[in-house]
Amino acid sequence: MSSLQRLQSLYPWIKTPLVVGAPMRLIALADMAVELSKAGGIGFIGAGTDVSDLESHVQKAQLLLQALPTPLASRSKTLPIGLGFINWGASLPDSIDIIKKYSPAAVWFFAPTSTTSLLEWTRSTRAASPDTQVWVQVGSVKEALDTVKTVTPDVLVVQGTDAGGHGLVRGASLITLLPEVQDAVRAAIVEQGGGEPPIFIAAGGIVEKRGAAAAHVLGADGVVLGTRLLASHEANIARGYQQEIIRASDGGQSTVRTKVYDNLRRTTGWAETHNARGVINRSYHDAISGMDEERNKQLYDEETKKGDAGWGTHARMTTYAGSGVGLVKEVKSVEDIVREIREGVEEVLGR
Ligand SMILES: Cc1cc2nc3c(=O)[nH]c(=O)nc-3n(C[C@H](O)[C@H](O)[C@H](O)COP(=O)(O)O)c2cc1C
């Protein structure tokens, strides 16, 4: 069976070329996830490191899905959306309770503390909800091989260094990473005695039809949108943040991978291997100019009281975004974004 046929049978509501919504912590919640799936993509709720309110988001998604005039066809009664976990922080038992109770079509794992921990998450998920597919986001050939050898993921999300938010400190763009990962994974599977390779989904820097088409040319079976969806009506995001996404351009220059924003926001706990890409602002300039971290934190805390005015190059609130941010020009509905990309890939590839 081809990867596309597999996708279609596992997620019967989708339309291809497949567009996936990244499980962005605090931002991709029920509205975004359900709209993504409704538009023929796969939507994920981003639980992140804290699953204490995840159940309420899943329940809301369930209600939204039940209210659709035509229910989305799903396999074995799984919920036609996914749930994304940042494994190093999320509680395994609490997450598994939710996975068991709601049977999402997929779970998305990211940044586990070790392959042993990833194996525990995967085994527990498969035991709790056998029809839930296990997606793992990786950012290097090594991570991809370790993952494939340890847990046999159903889907590998290959994240290039252009990605917004968290990822590996040392990375490569999708243009080199994806083909090398695919070659290495396929060779490893042959070496292990054969079997079906995972489905490969590309993430990082894909914002519009040309990037999405390029990812398919590189060998992706589908694409992830993160930064593009920050400028959607369904994003749970402050207006100031969203406007900064629309304003920023030339992402290679205007964004940076750094730990500065995690430190200011006290979202620490990430391994040394990971940092996050965001738009350069005043707190970043101050940090690299040598400002005392406590002072920078204090200024950050004061900025949080300014509301939307707290975002911008001369302000201090964090604008996590990928280097494709300059291609995001307008706030649109998830439905329009997904349709434009899907149809655009067909157009660019001349099918
Ligand atoms: C604001 C923001 C928050 C994110 N949060 C998460 C997260 O909680 N879990 C995760 O696995 N990935 C997260 N990511 C990374 C995405 O999964 C994805 O790899 C990335 O957005 C793709 O690159 P792009 O932003 O260029 O589209 C986040 C990305 C952004 C921009």
From TrEMBL:
Single GO molecular function: nitronate monooxygenase activity
Presence of the UniProt keyword Mitochondrion in the record: no
CDD domains on file: NPD_like (cd04730)
InterPro entries in alphabetical order: Aldolase_TIM (IPR013785), NMO (IPR004136)
Record bears the keyword Oxidoreductase: yes
Keywords tagged on the record: Flavoprotein, FMN, Oxidoreductase
Protein name as annotated: Inosine monophosphate dehydrogenase
